[in-house]
Amino acid sequence: MIEKCCLAVAGSDSGGNAGVQADLRAFHSFGLHGCTVLSALTAQNPGGVSAIMPVGAGFVAAQLDAVLGVYAIAAAKTGMISDPASIEVIADRFGRHPEIAKVVDPVMVATSGDRLVSDATVEAVKKLLLPLATVVTPNLPEAEVLAGVKSEGRMASAGRAAELAKRIFDLYGANVLVKGGHGGGDSASDVLCTAAGVRVFSLPWVADPVSTHGTGCTLASAIAASLALGSTLEDAVAAAKEHVHKAVEKSYFVGEGCGVLGFV
Q: How do the domains of the chain map onto residue ranges?
């Protein structure tokens, strides 16, 4: 019997908190083998990103060709992709595999606030990746970029997230989950917009967590893993959100001021 597996197309995090390292941890938590395509290398720790080295589009293509059609990949997740040429390659290869569920996490802004990609890369994501996505998972700042609007001092909230999610859905025809980790209120609320309408997924904030670094990557990867196992999109989002909540609850220190998400 051939078991299903997942693919992460993302950057590497030298601190092991986010990127492909977080993706593999999530895949394994769901009992799935994880394949990887490195799209960038980063020098980072919980304090921020100090350097980014792009991986050339040719090598991104070689990695994709090595795994697609060979491994039984049921779902794929994209993270930080550093240049438009790589996005073109990824979109081309993904377009050849409509059977694979695709979670597009448009990593554009780090948790620290650092901008990670160029305007040209943002446009390539909009034009090439979003139309292929089973679901796209921006955080609130990234949702504003995709929606082409600015916050203008407006408070982050589930209502604001829903407004952005609807606009992105209307613009690109892609299911969208706007992550609420940058929002306020009494709970962490993520908003999913599909053709069926809008649904809010809420869980209480974890009090005084050791770490939340990598939660966005983990959520998107957990959604991909759940889709690979046959869940509906709504069930996959609910399972992924619960997974991240538990990981934050179990976060722990691995160095002075360096926390990581816990094992679930």
A: 5-145+211-260
- Tens-digit pLDDT profile for residues 7-25: 999 999 999 999 999 999 9
Active site residue: 111, 179, 193, 241, which one? 179
DSSP, residue by residue, 94-126: HHT-TTSEEEE----B-TTS-B-S-HHHHHHII
Amino acid identity of residue 229, one-letter, is L
Active-site hit among 5, 6, 193, 217:
217
According to CATH, the topology of domain 5-145+211-260 is UDP-N-acetylmuramoyl-L-alanine:D-glutamate ligase (3.40.1190)
Predicted confidence (pLDDT) per residue in 196-214, tens digit = 999 999 999 999 999 999 9
CA–chain centroid gap for 86, Å, is 17
The single residue of 15, 214, 218, 241 carrying the catalytic annotation is 214
